[in-house]
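Running co-folding for MTE.
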Amino acid sequence: MTRTSRIDPPSRTTAVRAAAPEDAVRADARRLVIRGQLRRPLALTVADLRERWRQHRAAVVFDCAKNGPRHHTFHGPLLRDVIDTAEPTFDARRRKDRSRYLLTVTGGDGHHTVLSWAEIDPDFGDAPILLATAMDGRGLDGTGSQLVVPSDRCGARYISAISGIWVGTCAPPERP
Ligand SMILES: Nc1nc2c(c(=O)[nH]1)N[C@H]1C(S)=C(S)[C@@H](COP(=O)(O)O)O[C@H]1N2
Ligand SMILES: [Mo]
């Protein structure tokens, strides 16, 4: 975000910056923000993802256009379980309502991808997509969580250093 787009008054911004130790600022930058059409938006560290939800394991192979096949073992909570906690605004009893929702997942470098809620919903695709807390036995606390999409053949949606997830609906297409 550029300075000119900040909405804080300058005096308050200066005061907050002066008071915040460098470590706190960096730790805050590593929080993954889950926002959008949710009743309980969340801001989570990798430690939160590890402690608050049941951990699953996924041994995966995905292909990178540049580097060929990659083999990794990930641990982390199901994306579905974490987003459930944030309470999407859909009527959970209505499958049609749930099927309208999308998620965007964005990495710290701006690389982002789209998922549909139906991919991870047990009544539809039921894909065991993870928000990884560890890769190959090493914690991701320093770099941030990584999206793990075991059913994808290629690696483009394995977003690393996740900074944000947005959940919501898009406007219906205009009638022709
Ligand atoms: N944040 C972010 N995540 C990313 C990418 C990226 O450019 N930025 N590239 C993707 C692609 S194309 C691949 S193949 C995998 C690479 O995973 P690797 O680090 O195991 O090689 O990361 C994915 N995740
Ligand atoms: Mo890739």
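Result summary
The longest helix spans residues 10-19.
The pocket of MTE (ligand 1) is lined by residues 64, 67, 70, 107, 109, 111, 155-156, 158-161 (CB under 6 Å).
Job closed.
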